[in-house]
Design goal:
Helix content: 25-40%
Protein name: 4-diphosphocytidyl-2-C-methyl-D-erythritol kinase
Radius of gyration: 19 Å
Family: Belongs to the GHMP kinase family. IspE subfamily.
Domain GHMP kinase C-terminal: 208-279
Number of helices: 9
CATH class of the largest domain: Alpha Beta
Distance between the termini: 30 Å
InterPro entries: GHMP_kinase_C_dom, GHMP_kinase_C_sf, GHMP_kinase_N_dom, IspE, Ribosomal_Su5_D2-typ_SF, Ribsml_uS5_D2-typ_fold_subgr
Pathway: Isoprenoid biosynthesis; isopentenyl diphosphate biosynthesis via DXP pathway; isopentenyl diphosphate from 1-deoxy-D-xylulose 5-phosphate: step 3/6
Oligomer: single chain
């Protein structure tokens, strides 16, 4: 029996996201402090005659398992880049626990998990830098999701600065069940050339340091997203009022909102509060992953 390989695909949280420049190609340069929560999709791979994908889980409905799925696109891209190193066919099964089009990098994290599986089965080692270059061709968030550790992302997401330290913190994440298209949010963005993120404290080890820093930042995509989905603004206010919440904000282009907490108990109590108020929303509480690779 050949043992299956399992990779987790953690949820990405943009603690801050500044849009700093609109490029001539229509894309935007960003600066974002990104962390990853210990809630995730799971991708399992076993040897097969050819590559294939099946999907299950609470958010599997409506997801295609064909060649346009980001998981299979990542596998195909790896095989095209390193045909001599690629493993034989893989039967892949994705357990989709994270909501889709939610601003927490679900599809990008799944693609990154597929790249890590391919690299782990390759005939020779593939460097993280080379793998990150390939990841950037699949989507702006895929390079960050490849590392799945606290970092600052710049450019369109391909320039990564992993943080050597990060305080132990917890998040409560809430999604109102409304898919938000990133392109729709950017079309409603008024200012395309905003100031950069302030310099981070070094080392960043205490929650108070992060809290002060976050007060000087924002998510530039939040105002246009709130106009599209007013529930986002309501949830931000709800979380901000829960005991112990350091700050609340939208992640990515939405519609997922998060509250940041110093204790696990406070995060879970906030999640329980939201579940009581909005039982139909997806809500979870989790620790932020350690910086260790």
């Amino acid at each position: 029996m050949v043992q299956a390989i399992v990779q987790t695909a953690p949820a990405k949280i943009n603690l801050a996201l500044h849009v700093t420049h609109r490029r001539e190609d229509g894309y935007h340069d960003l600066e974002s402090l990104i962390v990853f929560a210990n809630i995730f999709d799971e991708l399992e791979a076993t040897p097969a005659d050819e590559d294939g994908l099946t999907i299950s889980g609470p958010f599997s409905k409506g997801l295609g398992a064909g060649p346009t799925n980001l998981v299979l696109r990542a596998v195909a891209a790896f095989r095209a880049r390193w045909p001599d190193l690629s493993p034989p066919g893989l039967s892949l099964h994705l357990v989709k626990n994270l909501p889709v089009a939610a601003g927490i990098g679900g599809g990008s994290a799944d693609a990154a998990a597929a790249l890590r599986i391919m690299a782990s089965r390759a005939a020779e080692p593939v460097s993280v830098a080379e793998l990150a270059d390939l990841a950037a061709t699949l989507g702006a968030d895929v390079p960050a999701c490849l590392l799945s550790r606290p970092l600052v992302a710049r450019g369109v997401g391909e320039i990564l600065s992993p943080l050597p330290a990060f305080p132990r913190l917890y998040v409560t994440v809430v999604n109102p069940g409304v898919a938000v298209a990133t392109a729709d949010v950017f079309r409603r963005l008024r200012a395309h050339d905003n100031y950069s993120l302030p310099a981070l404290p070094e080392p960043l080890t205490r929650p108070a340091q992060l809290g002060l820093w976050l007060n000087e930042t924002r998510n530039d995509l939040q105002p246009p997203a709130v106009k599209l989905v007013p529930e986002i603004g309501i949830l931000i206010e709800e979380l901000a009022e829960t005991p112990g919440c350091m700050m609340s904000r939208m992640s990515g282009s939405g519609a997922t909102v998060f509250g940041l907490f110093g204790s696990e108990g406070q995060a879970h109590e906030a999640a329980n509060h939201v579940r009581r108020r909005y039982p139909e929303y997806w809500t979870a509480a989790a620790a932020i992953s350690s910086p260790a690779i």
